[in-house]
From TrEMBL:
GO cellular component: cytoplasm
Listed GO MF terms: carboxy-lyase activity; hydrolase activity
InterPro entries: ACMSD (IPR032465), Amidohydro-rel (IPR006680), Metal_Hydrolase (IPR032466)
Membrane-spanning segments: none
Domain of life: Bacteria
Signal sequence coordinates: none
Keywords annotated in UniProt: Hydrolase, Lyase
UniProt source species: Streptomyces mutabilis
SUPFAM superfamilies attached to this UniProt entry: Metallo-dependent hydrolases
Protein name: Amidohydrolase
């Protein structure tokens, strides 16, 4: 199959799982997490987000409504991941196991309504590194393509040695790992004007990817298939500063073998950057074979017209079709 003949694949689309939220409802840890989320976002953002999500519940939960929306967008296949609000990294070990099992099973059930058009990702509890491998294996056993993770867990960065077994297992199995932040540790500094998302998400992406690069995780696991949401955040457009630090400072260059920019060509990125010039720059630094169509379906910080956003970048035909679906179709076939 050539890229031009490949289906159009959206790798950044979400599903809402009421079963997961029912499991945590009323628990003290959930209440504390909601309070933290409220502080991080601020009251004005919550007042907008609540109605926005409620209006989109049919698209988030009903496969028939999802498929109709995909048809309207010209999307053939979605890689469906749980809403990041389902991470619940506050959960203890027993609850965390119940959560990832339920999330994986519910996502697989949602995608089973149209297995030729819907592929799924599960969850792995990063707050318990020893469970992350089990969560990944459980997702793969349910026919999912891999797992979705956040940019960090409480008290742990993605560079933490405790995650080495997880990276090893993901590399061995060819599983897709979708890096999608939830929340930002800048907390109340971003609690107005929805800065928690507009600044917070790309910041978290940049920090998480930098942890993986500078720590040598990508040196140790060159076959890891990691997809960064939101075009990798701020990192790809500011990677020159990372390269300079790596070459100018012994502390910055101690953990990874090559200039940071070289690792962008080992990662995958979705196309959701909201600016055709930024998308062209992402393709320049990472390569057209490393960028995948993404919409953040169906949330308001996504795009209702992912193909239109891609066309606006005025790519060559070859690059357009690679990003439109050729790259993702190859990954899903490998999976």
């Amino acid at each position: 199959m050539t890229a031009a003949n490949a289906p159009t694949v959206d790798v950044h689309a979400h599903v809402l799982l009421p079963e997961v939220e029912a499991l945590v409802a009323g628990l003290p840890g959930h209440a504390e997490a909601k309070e933290l989320d409220a502080r991080r976002n601020g009251p004005a953002a919550l007042a907008v987000s609540g109605p926005m999500v409620r209006e989109r519940i049919p698209r988030l939960t009903d496969p028939a409504v999802r498929l109709a929306a995909m048809d309207a967008q010209g999307v053939d296949v979605q890689l469906v991941s749980p809403s990041p609000s389902h991470y619940h990294y506050w959960a203890d070990e027993d609850l965390a196991e119940k959560l990832y099992r339920l999330a994986n099973e519910a996502t697989a059930a949602h995608c089973s309504a149209a297995p030729e058009r819907l592929r799924g990702l599960g969850l792995a509890p990063l707050q318990h590194p020893e469970q992350a491998v089990r969560g990944l294996d459980h997702a793969l056993e349910r026919g999912l393509a891999g797992v979705e993770i956040s940019s960090h867990a409480p008290g742990r960065e993605l560079s933490d040695p405790a995650y080495e077994p997880f990276w090893t297992r993901a590399e061995e199995t060819g599983a897709l790992v979708f890096l999608h932040p939830f929340g930002c540790t800048l907390d109340e500094r971003l609690d107005r004007w929805y800065l928690s998302n507009t600044v917070g998400q790309p910041t978290e992406n940049a920090v998480a990817l930098s942890q993986l690069i500078f720590s040598g995780v990508l040196d140790r696991h060159p076959g890891l298939t990691l997809i960064a949401a939101h075009g990798g955040g701020y990192l790809p457009t500011h990677i020159g500063r990372s390269d300079h630090a790596w070459s100018a400072r012994s502390d910055a260059g101690a953990g990874c073998a090559h200039p940071p920019s070289s690792y962008l060509k080992r990662l995958y990125f979705d196309s959701l950057v909201h600016d055709p010039h930024v998308l062209r720059e992402l393709i320049r630094v990472a390569g057209a074979d490393r960028v995948l169509l993404g919409s953040d379906f169906p949330f308001d910080m996504g795009t209702e017209d992912p193909l239109g956003a891609l066309r606006a970048a005025r790519l060559s035909d070859a690059d357009f079709h690679a990003v439109r679906g050729g790259n993702a179709a190859a990954l899903l076939r490998k999976d």
